[in-house]
């Protein structure tokens, strides 16, 4: 199906970024946008307030081909990086929790198996995960080691032909609903990855409650108490810290696009409100201070979109570098958070309610700013690229 593009139809697309997309990319973006409009927007405020994620969405996301969509084979769609990014943009325009679910499922849990797993592991898990029949999570972060995973305390020791895993993982998206966890642990030969199915003796999880951010997302703690696994549970191609960090680069890429979606949705809500809210006899959109806010935010949004698209083209060409992904996450999440906060000011008192999206997006983006590498860590990655000096220690 061919799509047509009419420049100037979206006032927020000041630089006609949409015109730089292919027909296929626009079609994928529009398909995800319709799904979000039909299945997410009518309910997301309720999910956020209740602090829940509707697991029944997983098969629907799978049917659309959005789970592991940028991977090849095993029931995955095999789309381009840009198409995956555009899907993330539309998902996060609905809510960061929805994009987080898709990112963790596809770019962390599935990607770790696809990249580092055995053929048997791929056949066992990837088709079901792509269909949304099985949910995965990614156990790297620990209570005392977030930005410093090299010093994780989770241990895997040999016991005959088996492995014994002991440790705790924290802030794990999908953690308490996952059917399988990719768990990273220290061994005598360095960091290795293991697949831990739900129900394995000694493996438990709990949902983290009382969150002020990412409420429409399930965040869990994983507890491994002398979990015995066969060697076939080990990811055979994962050796060293570079393996989980490679997975994180995949997830961070989706955030570059996704955060722009949250910014776009916030700005659209503020623009619509400003045109309909009348004060002193005219819409507040007609006042100079409001227009300055809107103009500055629109420039920031369009800059973020151009950056995301450029990095997507680099990724599709196989030329992207880790520090470039850090540039994208650092800039776009920071920009999106500033936009969401500023949009709330245009909405006035109405902006603190769940009737409008900007403050919900702002709360969510506080988590996005921190996970998959804090803004401080990405700043130091960029600093190292500039100076050649690693300032992490």
From TrEMBL:
GO terms for biological process: fatty acid beta-oxidation using acyl-CoA dehydrogenase; fatty-acyl-CoA biosynthetic process. Residues 239-386 form the Acyl-CoA dehydrogenase/oxidase C-terminal domain. Its cofactor is FAD. Residues 22-133 form the Acyl-CoA dehydrogenase/oxidase N-terminal domain. InterPro entries: Acyl-CoA_Oxase/DH_mid-dom (IPR006091), Acyl-CoA_Oxase/DH_mid-dom_sf (IPR046373), AcylCo_DH-like_C (IPR036250), AcylCo_DH/oxidase_C (IPR009075), AcylCoA_DH/ox_N (IPR013786), AcylCoA_DH/ox_N_sf (IPR037069), AcylCoA_DH/oxidase_NM_dom_sf (IPR009100), Glutaryl-CoA_DH_mitochondrial (IPR052033). Residues 137-227 form the Acyl-CoA oxidase/dehydrogenase middle domain. GO terms for molecular function: fatty-acyl-CoA binding; flavin adenine dinucleotide binding; glutaryl-CoA dehydrogenase activity. Keywords: FAD, Flavoprotein, Oxidoreductase, Transit peptide. Belongs to the acyl-CoA dehydrogenase family. PANTHER family: GLUTARYL-COA DEHYDROGENASE, MITOCHONDRIAL. This is Putative acyl-CoA dehydrogenase. It comes from Actinoplanes missouriensis (strain ATCC 14538 / DSM 43046 / CBS 188.64 / JCM 3121 / NBRC 102363 / NCIMB 12654 / NRRL B-3342 / UNCC 431).
